[in-house]
Amino acid sequence: MQQLLPDLWETDVEHPAPGLTTHAYLLVRREGNVLFYNSNQASAWPVVERLGGIAWQLLSHEDEVGPSLLTIRERFGAKLGIHEAEQEAVAAICPPDRLFNQREQLMTGIEVIPTPGHTPGSCCFLVTGHNGLGYLFTGDTLYRAKHGVWRAGMIDGHSDRTLLRQSLQTLQSLSPDVVISSAFTGDAGHQHLQGDDWQRLLTNALQTLG
Asked: Is residue 75 helix, strand or coil?
């Protein structure tokens, strides 16, 4: 694992499919640490233990579901949250403790924003992090591609283009300082933003979505 920010750690890289890369991210907080997305990296767990374990694991969508959910629950006693539209995908492995169905404050400093389109229950998470910085976890709704270009997570035959466009338009009202995708195809899945970076990358993602 590596530390990205004073309160944010990134697990080692994983390759769930050819050309696709993922990380999970641990937010360290006094109220209980939160793991965003999912990881199969057993080497991360001793580090996570030293950092205080995992109180909650929040999934952005069903593609993050896997056997490690049960490992994380059994090892850390973590509670699991996912959108209700993805409940069937996760329930057989690890029954969720919290189902999302609307934009809401999940806990202090963490807001869930449903962003359907990539999958019916895709969600983003807006976090108030170190020194008030805004971290936006976008799942696969918006992902970082090659050369630092951000793209909409549109998969023909799988995603809903209209809903995804509406979700990206919803995200335009935000002003994150750091944006962090689940899967990515470039050199990293996160980016620190300045000035009008956020609006420019969203505009480009909407234009390429068609």
From this structure: helix
Sequence-ordered list of residues with C-beta below 8 angstroms from that of 147, at least 6 positions apart, any chain = 186
| The CATH fold of domain 2-209 | Metallo-beta-lactamase; Chain A (3.60.15)
Q: Provide φ and ψ at 101, rounded to 5°.
A: -145, 5
CA 55 to chain centroid, in Å, comes to: 16
Query: Domain coordinates of the chain in residue numbers?
Result: 2-209
Tokens for 11? 């697990």
Of the listed ranges 127-131, 141-145, 198-202, the least confidently predicted one is 141-145
pLDDT, tens only, 105-139:
999 999 999 999 999 999 999 999 999 999 999 99
Identify the residue whose tokens are 């999958």: 119
pLDDT tens digit string along 30-80? Answer: 999 999 999 998 999 999 999 999 999 999 999 999 999 999 999 999 999
Residue 142, number of CB atoms within 10 A of its CB: 25
Residues in the chain: 210
**Locate tokens 């374990």: which residue?**
53
Cα dihedral 145, 4, 136, 198 sign = negative
The two most distant CA atoms of the chain are separated, in Å, by 46
